[in-house]
Design a protein that fits this description.
This protein is an alpha/beta fold. Helices cover 37% and strands 16% of the residues. It is built from ten helices and twelve strands.
Length: 369
């Protein structure tokens, strides 16, 4: 599943239609989460107790046999998670640095504990889950800094860059790509990036005009107005070199040597726009990209595993990808192919006006994982 070659090609796979469980989960989100976000987006400046969401998730019991350890970083904490049977994080094998979603406002290691434990099981890899600083008190630039500190901790634990996978859901996709770009400028070539239902750009207008805005089970149009407004206000409060923090758009800074990327997204959610845009721009720069589209699912449907069979299958596919990406023989083959590829050493920034897509292969899945 990990792409050895196919440089400059976006491989898009459309999965089977949603199961009954998947459709019910999507309906449940539409009846509960979407109305709540509709109200919240109109009262975005109210001091909602966002931290209570992750605190309440502490009541969820960990998966049997799993191991977790608290890690203290300079400005935040993290949690090192291992599923039952996964070997300790000793720097000898692969590791995942995970950035959770939650609109830079909420969630954390507790809300995502079952998801990352399942990911650890299928990838046979420890997962370091970042509890990065969040809005409204902190800017998204500070969140990127915290994730950078998480990477430094892994490097200090003995991991090489080609053993490290960056992974995230929703805004964790943004953080993964932004962090990969920062590390690339420091000469760090990571094993891969994995994103689930990723938000990849802050700009709201293209997303609000996307056809799936009406079918999205979670996000009303106004939610993105409030989201961008909160990001701008948080950035204004953080002063760097005498100026407010600018909004960083990772998709405007795509380079040829970024890690191979796997994206899983619902075919019914508005972030399908971000997923396909990211895949096109990465592919145009020569980065191997796989995009798997799951019809009829809710945003970050993987969090519903194991109740939703597609969620479990998605995490199993991601786990296999991570295993292969951190396999030394697979990695050597990919690096050799990319060095030989014409122009692979040159920076490529996709033209937002043209967005010309490299060759795309679209498959329809029929019971094949």
């Amino acid at each position: 599943m990990f792409d050895r070659g196919g440089l400059g090609m976006v491989r898009e796979v459309v999965e089977d239609d949603a199961s009954v469980a998947g459709r019910l989960a999507c309906l449940g989100a539409r009846l509960t989460v979407r109305p709540a976000l509709a109200v919240g987006s109109r009262l975005a400046n109210v001091p909602w107790p966002w931290g209570l969401v992750d605190f309440a998730a502490r009541a969820v019991t960990p998966a049997p046999g799993s191991v977790r350890a608290a890690i203290r970083l300079p400005h935040c904490t993290a949690r090192l998670v291992r599923a039952a049977g996964v070997l300790p994080a000793d720097g000898t094998r692969g590791v995942v640095l995970y950035m959770h979603g939650g609109a830079f406002l909420t969630c954390g290691a507790n809300t995502h504990d079952r998801l990352v434990t399942t990911l650890s099981k299928y990838s046979d890899t420890p997962v370091l889950v970042m509890n990065y600083r969040m809005m409204p008190k902190h800017s998204i630039g500070e969140a990127i800094d915290d994730c950078y500190d998480g990477h430094r901790w892994l490097r200090g634990a003995g991991y090489r860059p080609d053993q490290i996978i960056l992974a995230g859901d929703s805004v964790g996709g943004y953080l993964s790509l932004a962090l990969a770009q920062r590390l690339l400028h420091e000469g760090e070539h990571l094993a891969a990036i994995v994103c689930m239902s990723p938000l990849m750009q802050i700009a709201k207008v293209p997303r609000q005009a996307h056809p799936t805005i009406s079918s999205d089970a979670m996000f009303p149009v106004k939610a993105f107005d409030a989201f961008v407004d909160l990001i701008a206000k948080a950035g204004q409060r953080r002063i760097l070199d005498g100026h407010p923090e600018e909004i960083y758009e990772p998709l405007d800074h795509i380079e040829a040597c970024l890690p191979p990327t796997l994206i899983h997204v619902s075919g019914s959610e508005v972030l399908l726009h971000d997923a396909r845009l990211a895949a096109r721009r990465l592919g145009a720069a020569g980065v191997p990209v796989q995009l798997r589209v799951w019809p009829g699912q809710m945003h970050v449907f993987q969090i519903a595993a194991p109740m939703v069979p597609e969620a479990d299958r998605s995490l199993r596919q991601i786990g296999n990808y991570i295993r292969e990406a951190t396999d030394p023989y697979q990695r050597a083959a990919v690096c050799t192919a990319r060095v030989r590829a014409p122009g692979s050493r040159h920076r490529v920034i996709a033209d937002s006006a043209s967005n010309r897509s490299p060759q795309s292969t679209i498959h329809r899945r029929n019971g094949v994982s």
